[in-house]
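User: Here's a chain of 163 residues. Predict its fold as tokens.
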Amino acid sequence: MSRIHSPLKRLGHLGLALLGGAALLGPTVAAFAASRPAIAAAMKPPHAVIHVHAFENLGNRTCMPDPPVHRAYFERSGRGIDWGVEFAMEDAAFRCLRSGTNDHIVLRVSIDARGRLARVQTDAASDSRLAACAEHWIRRQAQTGETGPGQLTIGYFMGSNRP
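Assistant: Prediction complete.
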């Protein structure tokens, strides 16, 4: 038997390989070609979720590496909200939230068209003392800008970053 392969023998091997591949893949290709295109079923509309920001580490702006008060929710709309209002809200949270508790509060400050403090709303989970304390400190310290109207909502909670 000769070790020299003729071109005809090579062509025969190639033809057999192609026939084998066609025999294996042919029915699959034919099935996909004959089938109707798939139509996606109507999906349910997505559920509305609360817009959430990552908790801001208030320790970045202070000398405390792990402050007891953390910012949870933040929403700013309109104009007239500057750093003075935000500082007054943070100061009220630090002064009014009790250390060692699970207290939380949401503060909303509204600025009118003249740039004055129009309304302070507090949601302290039915803790009227905490709400009154926060409103007092915000009204006492808030410095508004020259323009308005605008609104700032910030949520704060007690806790520790440490596990």
